[in-house]
Amino acid sequence: MRGVRKAFNVGLPIETEVLHGIDLDVVPGEFCAVMGPSGSGKSTLLNIIGLLDRPTAGSLCICGEETVGLDDRAITRLRGHSIGFVFQYHNLLTGFTALENVMMPMIGSAGFIDQGMAARASELLDSVGLSKWRGNLATNLSGGQQQRVAVARALAMNPRLLLADEPTGNLDTKAADAVFALLHEANRKEGMAVLFVTHNATLAQRCDRIVQVVDGRLLNPA
Ligand SMILES: Nc1ncnc2c1ncn2[C@@H]1O[C@H](COP(=O)(O)OP(=O)(O)OP(=O)(O)O)[C@@H](O)[C@H]1O
């Protein structure tokens, strides 16, 4: 991204600019921690990179494609195929099983269900150590298990970029380490770039690079 700005409430007396011209390159296979004080703009930055929100100004390329100017349909397609998300609160559909939750992105993308999706979701649940729990409703899993399902779901479409916004913020140390290890494995094995927002300096030190956001600016740009 180059010169990315984000303002909220544009045109109103309460208009506030939160990101003030961000330059950032993330290369394939890179594992970046994103740190900074509360309210500095980390989630806003991630939401823009994840195409969940649009910048007010600047340029944003995802997998080589300039996104500014794309219509909503193209944005949705690019997001669905290229980007996986893990949030602090897992956002699983609690009335569905672990397996069904992991299948959701595949169903959403294809518009239908087939056996191959269940097989792929099952493999992903194996990879996060939850094969025995695949038939459990999400609501009956522990917080750490739910977050591991959320990681499996984020990997379902084999994205090139994985965005994780404080995925360990709500977990005890052991569960946090387990979730971090899964992100790290996805990064090393699949070569996906990861942006990992965290307040945990120990985990951040284990990433390739730390991007510091302070007052809507990067301390160490590009
Ligand atoms: N939709 C919105 N409308 C208005 N202001 C917003 C909106 N979303 C975020 N902000 C403001 O943008 C600023 C940055 O918020 P953001 O959530 O990006 O910070 P953060 O660094 O992720 O914080 P934390 O570490 O506490 O999660 C805050 O002042 C917040 O109030």
TrEMBL record:
Gene3D superfamilies: P-loop containing nucleotide triphosphate hydrolases (3.40.50.300). It holds the Pfam family ABC_tran. Coiled coil: none annotated. It comes from the Bacteria. SMART domains: AAA. Keywords: ATP-binding, Cell membrane, Membrane, Nucleotide-binding, Transport. The keyword Membrane applies. InterPro entries: AAA+_ATPase (IPR003593), ABC_transporter-like_ATP-bd (IPR003439), ABC_transporter-like_CS (IPR017871), ABC_transpr_LolD-like (IPR015854), MacB-like_ATP-bd (IPR017911), P-loop_NTPase (IPR027417). GO terms for molecular function: ATP binding. Belongs to the ABC transporter superfamily. This is ABC transporter ATP-binding protein. It comes from Variovorax ureilyticus.
